[in-house]
Amino acid sequence: MTDMAPLSVDGLRKAYRRGPVLGDLTFALRAGEAVALLGGNGAGKSTLLGCITGDRVPDRGGVRLCGHDPFSDLAAAAQCMGFVPETPFLYPELTVGEMLQFVAAARAMDEGGAAAETARLLELLGLAGAEGTLCRELSQGMGRKTAIIAALLHRPRAILLDEALNGLDRPSSARLIAELDARRAEGAAVLISSHDLEFVGEWCGRGLMLEPGARWTMLEGEAWEQWKRAPSLRAGWGD
Ligand SMILES: Nc1ncnc2c1ncn2[C@@H]1O[C@H](COP(=O)(O)OP(=O)(O)OP(=O)(O)O)[C@@H](O)[C@H]1O
């Protein structure tokens, strides 16, 4: 395992036509931790995740995934990262099995290892037997599970989850969380956005709060404990 942080973000700035969204955002994910990505609608969570995954170009600042810059060395950065977007993308005309083989090949996994890990994750998320189903025929939850497996297959060190637990049945989410805990024990780190604030408050050790006007706060220690006790959190909404 490398000593390099799974993810570091340094002085990230991003503005759209209507104003700044991310302002000098700086933080790093430590091996083994889970960090909540918090903020109301339009706060900039997807923009941040897009800048990390190489999907959106920051105006200033940098991102490193296991030390690799997604803009100058996307292949190495992608090897470090597993991303489940809020709206997962699957090739509609591929079967689940073909989709996962395609992802494993893109991540240069050896065939035997990829097949064994695919089978294990399909079983874990209750998708065993769905390998032959076309992606366009999957239910929403099944599609999300396929996207989660695609993101985790190559054992990334930086796991980025955008509302990834949405629509998962309870046993599947419990098994996914246990899997993520096992990955964390091996040195992976998780950045998760979720509207289930009770869950992220309990599971994550810190919270990155994005606010209007490109403001941000990393809530940790007592500030994180206070946020978890806040009435707005108990009411189910945190800003
Ligand atoms: N491609 C774009 N062009 C212009 N403005 C954009 C673009 N994408 C996002 N924005 C604006 O940037 C701000 C942040 O949007 P973003 O999607 O990052 O927020 P979010 O926190 O992910 O929101 P939500 O919780 O609703 O998904 C919003 O004001 C949005 O209108």
Q: How much helicity do the residues have?
A: 25-40%
Ligand types: adenosine-5'-triphosphate
The mean pLDDT is 93
From the alpha carbons, calculate the radius of gyration and give it in angstroms: 18 Å
* Secondary-structure arrangement, i.e. CATH architecture of the domain at 7-88 and 155-234: 3-Layer(aba) Sandwich
Main β-sheet: number of strands, strand sense, barrel status? 6 strands, mixed
What is the N-to-C succession of helices and strands?
Answer: EEEHEHEHHHEHEHEEHH
Could you give me the name of the CATH homologous superfamily of the domain at 7-88 and 155-234? P-loop containing nucleotide triphosphate hydrolases
Which spans of ≥5 residues are poorly predicted at pLDDT below 50?
A: none
* Silhouette: globular
Q: Give the termini distance in whole angstroms.
A: 37 Å
Find the structural class using helix and strand composition. alpha/beta
- Topology, number of strands: 9
What's the helix count? 9
Return the CATH class of the domain at 7-88 and 155-234: Alpha Beta
- What fraction strand? 15-25%
In which order are the strands of the major sheet placed? 5-6-7-3-8-9
Keywords: ATP-binding, Nucleotide-binding, Transport
Organism: Longimicrobium terrae
GO molecular function, one term: ATP hydrolysis activity
Protein name: ABC-2 type transport system ATP-binding protein
